[in-house]
Amino acid sequence: MDMKTTQKQDLRAWIELLEQNGEVQHVSGAEREKEIGGIVDFYQRKMGNKAVMFDDIPGYEKGYRVLANLLTSVRRINLTLGLPVDAKEIELVGYWREYMKDAPAIPPREVNGGAVMENVYSGDDIDLLKIPAPRWHEHDGGYFIGTACMVIMKDPDSGWINYGAYRVQVHDKKVASVMTSKGKHGNLIMERYKARGEKCPIAVVAGMHPSLFMVAGLEMPYGKDEYDLAGGLIGEAVEIVKGPVTGLPIPANAEIAFEGYVHPDDLIDEGPLGEWTGYYAGGVKQEPAIRIETFMHRDNPVLLGAVPAVPPNDDTFYRGTYRCGAVWNQLEAAGIPGIRGVWAHEAGGSRMWLTVSIKQEYGGHSKQAGLIASQCHAGAYANRWVVVVDDDIDPADMNAVVWAMCTRCDPREGVDILRGCWSTHLDPMSYSEEDRRNARVIVDACKPFARRDTFPIVARSSKELDAAIKAKWGAVLPEGA
Question: In this structure, are residues 131 and 145 in contact, taking their beta carbons and an 8 Å threshold?
């Protein structure tokens, strides 16, 4: 598939593409305190609803807009990646799997200025409050400008540039905060500066082409430059400008960006925010403050929102097919043969439930696949359930998966519990404030290996009978048969 169809790096080109495909709902006059978030909540409750563009926001300059419900549609993900607009979920899994095998890398290219620098402020002219960041949920503790965002940092030892999608709250004209879970790359980098007694340079981008945001939310290996991988994804070098103060690379066509420093032990009350698990599990915490030194934005800027909430939600839906491809590849890299499919179910925020389909080749094969899927890098974070099924089960068909669990799994032999695993304080079942680990269950829902040939046969028509019935009686069969 030709990735070069997504060469444009401008969010506004993406919005125009959505408009051409009937994928945008315009809303005028909704206020940011309750109405924007309340409307987005309705749109996120079912995948496939349109993206929502909010304009004429009361109390804010005309032309300042908010766009949310970005990637809750397979059609919009396809448009972002340059795939056929009607490609199915399993085709997306295949796309990510093949992309990651090659993982083409194109380094970013520095340019002399860009649209993001149409308005640049420093000193007392900085006013982050002019951006209509919403209170996304009724009980949120503030206004989060960073949900669909890029948080950019540089490793103090190697100079490696990392960017990730971490939540960013606005506190005042020149103060924001950033929350990163333990073990995430952004947290590791900040801790390295703190250990040196140095301030950590940081830049936040709150409006960019969604392909750049997608890379921000994916589990890349430590030391891999997301800009390089984003360039490979879109098929050309990402154009960047350097932040005037920090020198950190910022997309030249970004809508909104700011830079500054996180100082050692400079903490501020942050949250709560209704999160991707569907709960306010984090509460109010002390998180690193960002002291802003440069604020820049385009004329009539568009703030992006990928709102975490009760699944399905915009914060996790797009990651599911990527995670499936990543887990699949990492299982094969670990030497596990016979993988036929992987699915990260949206009800678990595309993290807490993984189903792996395999063609069993030896005793213990299914349990081995489940244990490795639960601990490989792409599958380990905040995971709760891993279910392994035979290759006659579609891992994305939850009815079929539950059927396999009910009829092929004996809990005496087929269920294992792992304790002390990698999690987050956003997990409502994490052990304690001091110990952010969890337990997870590995379910072997495959036919017992020793009984594969004698296990009762499935009471369903054969593929040959299905084909014959479709050929003769297709006109009377239900849609999608």
Answer: yes
Measured distance CA(57)–CA(27) in Å, rounded = 9
Question: Which residue in this structure is represented by tokens 């680990």?
Answer: 437
Q: List the Cα angle 221/225/230 in 5-degree steps.
A: 105
Using an 8 Å Cβ cutoff, are 261 and 203 in contact? no
CA distance 116 to 301: 9
Residue type, 323: R
CA angle 206-208-209, nearest 5°? 150
Whether a cis peptide bond, with omega within 30° of 0, leads into 312 is: yes
Give exposure, 340-351, as e/b (b: 16+ Cβ within 10 Å): bbbbbbbebbbb
Place of tokens 């503030």: 142
Same domain, yes or no, for 364 and 229? no
Q: Which domain holds residue 382?
A: 317-463
Tens digit of each residue's pLDDT (9 = 90 or more) over 383-439:
999 999 999 999 999 999 999 999 999 999 999 999 999 888 778 887 666 677 889
Question: Is the distance from CB of 340 to CB of 391 less than 8 angstroms?
Answer: yes
pLDDT in tens, 114-169: 999 999 999 999 999 999 999 999 999 999 999 999 999 999 999 999 999 999 99
Domain presence at residue 481: no
Q: Which amino acid is at 324?
A: C
| Helix 317-333 × helix 365-375 angle, to 10° | 130
Are 145 and 265 in the same domain? yes
Rounded CA-CA distance 106/232 in Å is 5
For residue 215, what is the DSSP state? Answer: H
Does 23 share its domain with 78? yes
